[in-house]
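Incident log, structure service

09:12 report received: a user says their structure output differs between two submissions of the same chain.
09:20 pulled the input from the user's history:
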Amino acid sequence: MRSMKKLITVCVSALIAGTAGAAVSPEEAARLGKDLTPMGAEMAGNADGSIPAWNPKGSPIPANFVAGSDNYVNPHPDEKPLYTIDGSNWQQYKDILTEGSQALFEKLGGDGFKMHVYPTKRDFVVPQWLYDNTAKNATGAKLVADGLKIDNAYPGVPFPIPADGEEVLWNHLTRYLTDHSVEYDVYYVSASGKRILSTKGFMTNVMPMYVEPEKQSTDEPWLKLRINYKAPARRAGEILLVHEPGADFTQGKGRKAWQYLTGQRRVRLAPAVSFDTPNPGVAGTSTYDDSFIFNGSPERYDWKLVGKKEMIIPYSNWDFVFQTKVEDALGDKFLNPDVLRWEKHRVWVIEATLKEGNRHLYSKRRFYIDEDSWAGLASENYDGRGNLWRVQYAYGANLYDIKSNYHFAYGSYDVLQGIYNLNTKPIPGKFKNGVDKNAKYFTAKGMARSGIR
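09:34 re-ran on a clean worker, output below:
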C-alpha cells in the first residue's frame, strides 16, 4: 500500500505540474477486490475492530420492508448505541471528531448537543457492472485541463485509488446514484429557536451518466435535477432545472441551469445558480455549492489531500431520513439527537483553499468523503477572516433492495450566527425510486410548458 507520505508527495507534484493526477499501474489496480474493495475502500476493518471489514452482501433487507414500496425501514431496529458523546465527555473523543463537530460541542454541548454512536455498518454495494467499470477507470481515467475534466472514464468511480485531493473530490462529484423523486419541506431555525419554512418542493433527479454502462461518460450529464416549488407563497410555481456535467467543467461545458419565475412567466438561463450564490431554498443560509456537501466546479480552489482518518459521522440513518417528520427533528438549536445515528468510519479528508484572484464567501473548506460510497458526509467552511462559519452533515442510508443509496438529506449549522437548516429530507412516504417523467420534462421547453401562467 502506498504510504500517506507518498500520497501527499504525488498530490503536491501534480499541483505543481498543473494537472490533478493520472491512472495507476496495473499492479496497483490489481488490489481492487483483494485488499481494497471494488470501489477502492480498505477491505479490512481497523485494528481495534470498531470498524468492521466490508460486507459484500450489502445491507440486509428487513422482513417488514414491502418490496417496491420505497418506504425504507431500519434493518437493525433493536440496536442500541455503543456510547454517547455529549458536552461532558466529548474531549475524550476529540481525535475521532471532525473539527466542525468539536466546534459544535464547544458551542452547544452545554445545551444538550450529543451524538449516539452505533455499531459501524459497511454494507454499501453496487451492481457488478459498476465494479467492472471502476477497474477499467483505475488504469485508464485521468484528469486533464487543470483538473476540470476527466478523460477516458466509464460510469463508475473514476479514481478508486486516488493520488490527490481533486481525484477524491471527483469521486464524490460523480458518485453512483439512481433515479428518484422526493417531496420535502425545508426549514431553517433562527437563533431564537423559531422554525421557519423556507421551501416546500418536489425534486426529481435522473442520472444520465449511468444509463449506458459501456459508454464513456465525458459527454453525459451526471445529474439532471428539477425542483418544482410549492411554498412559500412568494415562490410557489417557480421551477429550477440543473444539468450537472459528468466529467467536464471546462469553459462552456460545465453546469447549465434554468429558472422559471412566475412573475416573468418565462424560462431564463440561471448562471448564478452556482458557487457562493446564497441558496433561496434555505432562505440564503447556505450557498448553492453547499448542496449535498459540495457540488459544482472545483475551479476556484486549490485542493489538498490531507489523508484518510477514522471519524464519527452520520451513517445508516434510515429512521431519520425515511420515517421521521422534519417537524419532529427540529430542536431549538440543533437537530434532535435522538433521531440521528452516528458511526465510526474511515473517510478521505480533503481541503480546499481559495485560489489567488478568485472570489468566494469561503476562504477555506474541509470535506470528509466516505471511503465506501465516495459520498461527502461532513464539511467545514471558513469565512474570509479564517473563522469557522458553517458546519455541514449529510444524512443518508442504503437503498438495500436496488444496491444504491440516498445521501441528499443534508443540513448546515452556522456557528457564528447560531442558526441551522435542513434540506431535501423526504417527507415520510414521499420518496420514490425511479422517475415517471419523460426526457422533455428535464428541458427548458418542458419547464415552459408546465409553468403557471
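09:41 both user submissions now match this output. Likely a transient worker issue. Closing.
09:42 reviewer note: Confidence is low (pLDDT under 50) at residues 1-20. The CA atoms of residues 428 and 437 lie 22 Å apart.
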